[in-house]
Design a protein that fits this description.
With about 325 residues, this protein is of the alpha/beta class. Helices cover about 45% and strands about 15% of the residues. The strands form 2 sheets. It has a 4-stranded parallel beta sheet with strand order 2-1-3-4, with helices on both faces.
Amino acid sequence: MIMAHDEKSTNAKTGIVMIGHGEPEIFDEDVWLKGLREMFDEFRQTGLEVPPDDALPVMLMEIKDKYEAMGGKSRHAEVCRKQCELVAQHFPNYHVGIGFNEFIGPCFTEVAEEMIHEGVRHIAFVPMLQTDSTHTGEIRNKINALGLDSKEVQWIMSKPLFYRPEPTQLVINKIVEAAGKTPLEKVGVVLASHGEPDEWTRLCLENTRCKEQETAFCACVKKGLVEKGFVWDNIVQGFNEFTHPELPEAVETLADKNLRKVIVMPSFGSTDCMHVNYDIPTKAKSALVDPHVEIVCLGGWNDDPLIIKAYVELVKEALAKLFEDGDRRIQSQDT
């Protein structure tokens, strides 16, 4: 039981909406074309330069090639659904569903509206994301557009994974495992962050804290690895896009350290996806380093028990706050 309100009658009127980022499972030119145009429109609003429309066919071909390199399929949606299924096991009698923010359906707002139609009057929205970013800002705007207050539906949006300790421990565990029997002083680590344009931070677009939180997360991981015996100067942060040092640069900073192995670990994505399974390893392995140095690229966090625990705790915290605020509203109305 999470709290006193968690009786069956209350649970049955409470929804938990898990929100995945969204990525088409197979290459769909129309879906990607629409998504790229929407993304470029957002970039233009922030003053970022974007490719001209006549570059879109080339970009679509590159995306198609990435799918082919991944075996024709992105596992992102599949893993998100599995994560939701495992989280739901901790909340029996609640309405638990999953939707996506972009590219694929169902849209999370549709999932919420269906719950409301079925009688749900409390909803906890749970972004399946690592940081407070433009994506969490978009999600909050879409929730506000639902007009839930006018429908007498109380809601809350949980914090992202950054605020839980479990992802830090998971990343440390995976890197230690990948190091294997290689002497730790001969192991380099690149923590692969997503990155966001500095323009977004300066404009405070959707209150983004992505870059700041990614750096803080990597610092916590770095400290934990040093406590395990890794060398401080052999652990660096690199970015997949928008921000320097980009991944090839980050790997190359370790080139003169006489290492045997460099481990590249995603520090932002909780699922296998195009960034994790194609972009990061491709960019990392393009670095100009001694060919005798083994570059090991690790996958997504997926359904690791530590990630499921992180989501469960975020949901518990959100539900506690939701009902606490609800009680205050009722008390205010009674006085």
